[in-house]
Predict the 3D structure of the following.
Amino acid sequence: MAVGTMASAATSVPANDPNIQYMGRVDFSDPAAPVFGWAATTITVRFQGTSLRGIFRDSTGRDYLQVMIDGVMSPTIIQPSRTAATTYTLASGLSDADHTAVIIKRTEFWGVVTFKGFLLDDKKELLSPPARPLRRIEFYGDSNVSAHDSEDIYDRGSSKYNNAWYGYAGITARMLNAEHHNLGWGGAGMTSQSSPLVQNVWDRLRPDIAGSVYDFNQFDADVVVINAGSNDSYRGDNRKAVIAGWIDLIVNRIRPVHPHAHIVLADSWGWSYAEPANYLSDAVASLNDKSEMNVSWVSWPWLWGQTHAVVEEHGGFANILAAHIASELGWAVPAPTALSSFAGTGQISTPGFEIVPIGLDRQNQASGWRQWNSGKGAAGTVVTGAAGAHGGSRCAQLTVGRSSGDAGFWQAAPVTPGTTYTVTGYARRSAGTSTRVFMRVEFKDQAQNIISSSVGAVAITNLWESYTSSAVAPANAWSVTVVLQLQGTNTTVQFDDVVLR
């Protein structure tokens, strides 16, 4: 929220005050107006008083900042002005005490932000900043690293829903008590099939200036994670060129500036026959042949089609990656993050739709579940109200309008071929007469093609009743999906307490 002239006096704090702590690649060419463009860059301060204001400007007006106060994420989200440096209220109405604020750049490189200092209550001052974490991790890659659309299950490409704080890079770093740099860039890759090349931007201080080279003496990384190559695979199997790009990035670029860092090649499996996860191990073997031994690989499941991961899926990535890093470096294995919606092979999470996912405009969704709709008046939502749900206070609801429509919920998990999977849940019709209602299991191959499914037709009534559908996973199945679907007109149905066994 921008603010105008304040009647009360205020204490001005310049951006180069030594008690302001920055994390990320920040350009201090003008110490009074530092500039940053990479995702998850943060500004941390401890301050006295009841309020905090900050002065910001953005080069495009498309970036978003979010504020955390005393360890609690605030609903305050700022979209800095493109036209002028503007004063924004970061916190107000606090107790007159000492507080800690973290200002987070949610967005990847949509633009660069200029910061021009803080305003405190009159006669208040900054305190010494908190101690920095002792560990340091760098993340390089594409939109998965930068957490593009991590708050949007529909993946509509708005910078508003890009939240790198809750991307897997940030979650992993916090799980391991590490400071991190996020060098993710949407569309980036390792070959000419992608833009930009990671090899061309990896060392930039500012993503918008090719000649701005970061001073790596400022950040001696313990770990470097590289998650890039997916954008190179969309036009076919490009493994030779991708592996060559990984090797060049590691041997000729990263290793000279981080001689002691453990380097992890990471990617997802289950979305394409040509996906880089298929040949991570080959790349590590090639690096070992070149006497590069301080390197490993890790992969995680990708189960929701060709859309970007959302927060709860990033949490699943982070649990796998953090455990891998801890194992490779002999660190204590961290407690898993509760943000994850990964329930394990052949299992789904949030069967009762009770867990509200993190992010903007997501109160009517459920953690772990994806939604779709087609046709005018078709919609999927989660409704709240103890009287309406079968159990708990929330249930899934599908609606189709006067025009013929189709709407559904779905959730997927890794699969064991040859195993029988059974979905059981409760459903009822709350309005209308349509009987084209389904609760089924589907099996997909590595390229997300449906290869078999149960019928799962539900003879629905107006009362909550239990329904079951089963099928055996075929030999080439990579995932099992629970599908809740409504087809027809002028009907509303509800589902609750859906489990997969």
About this structure: The two ends are 48 Å apart (CA to CA). Confidence is low (pLDDT under 50) at residues 3-7. The chain has six helices and 26 strands.
